[in-house]
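hey so i finally got around to running both of the ones u sent me last week. sorry it took forever, my laptop kept dying halfway thru and i had to restart like 3 times lol. anyway pasting them below in the order u listed, first the sequence line then the structure token line for each. didnt double check formatting much so if smth looks off just lmk and ill redo it

first one:
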Amino acid sequence: MDKDVIPLLCCPDSGGELELKTEQEEDNRILAGELVSIETGHSFPIKDGIARMLPAREEGPPRSEAIPNGPAWEARVHQFERGLLSRIFTPFETSAFRYGVDLSGEDWLIELGCGRGRLSVHFTGIPHRHVCVDTSVNNLLVCKDRVEQRGFRYTSWVQADPVHLPFNTDSFDKLFSAQMIQHILKVEHRTQSLQEMARVCRPTGRLVVSAYSYDLFALLRRDKSGKHRGGLGYLRFSKEEFISLLHAGMLVEEVNQKLQYVWVGHGVPIKEFSMVIS
């Protein structure tokens, strides 16, 4: 956990300030310690350089239940990476996200639903700071190892609920989220997740989001929704449905389909003073 990222963090329950208690640090990085909510007193540990920032609860999945369960999400990420589709699709997806976010060396980038770092390694050397967020610590540990093996120093990892992001408003210049939103099965949670993405981005920032597409080919397969091997549920969106979803947090500039598989949409965050024109 990069020390420079600590001021961006807030309590995922109250949105309040956190107090850092360091146990181990090295080269401006927190390896172990805890972040304590000044308002609620709840402690969020930092272990192996990863801030564990899920909303307070005893055990189980994130409070929003946005991701059904950790093992199912981890299994899907691993399964996709091992498949031929990932090797074919990743270059196209990487190109689409780079075009959409338009990264520079001055940007603070957040990647929501980073998984095991499939796309992270293609972005982390570009921005000033890169924060990888996932609900699974196991995914984050793999992502961290992959990034560090490539010698990149300015990346941080945070375990968080996509509906209760533990970051202050207007913290990041750019945000992208690849193939996560289709696994958030409740409408209200998808809406809240898009609103959270917009909240943590600065007014001049950019958002890029992708999700499974529902087109003629999916219609012929009767594949509107289902479960992957391992039990992770998913939804597919028509172009109109996807644009409507994005409007919960984004002034949409462009939506394109990639390889008849996903929609990729990009635009600017909707703030209180923004207006959607349909």
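and the second one:
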Amino acid sequence: MPKASKASRSAPATQPAQPEKTTKRQASPNGGQGSGQARPLADNFIRVWAPTLITALFIITFNVQAFEIPSGSMEKTLLVGDHVLVDRTRFSPATSWAGPILPYRHPRDGDVVVFMSVITPDLHLVKRVIGVPGDRIHLVNQVVYRNGVALKEPYAEHTAGMQSPEIDNFPRLGVPQPCGPDCGATPQWASALSQYVQHGDLVVPPHHYFVMGDNREDSYDSRYWGFVPERNLIGRPLLIYWSYKAHEQDQTTISLSRRMRSFFSELIHFPFRSRWGRTLHLVR
């Protein structure tokens, strides 16, 4: 029997060849390799940045808080419209697990501190620590004496024509008589002052602090309402992250309409009224 030809065992010549399947991915419009490679990039971004963002959020939430200076009681150290970052952990009660990591310590003489007002709930104040527990404080003609030594205070500002015999010689002449909100001494302090005075000095009790504003004649401070309890302390201002030339009445008003006007004014005049030279200025 004749052998079959090779052509008779192969596919008919008229059958079209099957197109070859390609395994190449289509190029994406932006020149990449398509969505198949996009997921790893997104995963890498999350893997790299998520811990950083979480850490930053933790620090902002628990360690650092932003405050705006509403009054001129700390001029020239802090001006109305200064926006500061406050370290909230520095004066917190120390813990055994975080002690080696976070720099806990008690406030020291000369520290600038943020604290809750002792006479107005929910009001934040900024002053400078003049006396810590056990210190003996008195003033003679505006000069502060601590434990018998006159302080050198280059940060202190005095306004001519606003002297007060009682305040400038505190506590020897007592305190100004109460005359209303932010005017004169509070009745509680006026009656309690004498129990803390020994031989002409005001003695700071345990777990309390005596504070004053740097702008001495325009500061409503411990001379008028007494000591700051340790539990009222919030933290220590670190730096000024932004400063805007604002008016004190705009910062202290509670009127919603006036606050809104102040907000839009800052928005419009932001480039012109910002004190750029105070940006990232350390608070000392």
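quick thing i noticed on the 2nd:
Residues 59-282 form a domain with the Umud Fragment, subunit A fold (CATH 2.10.109.10).
anyway thats it, ttyl
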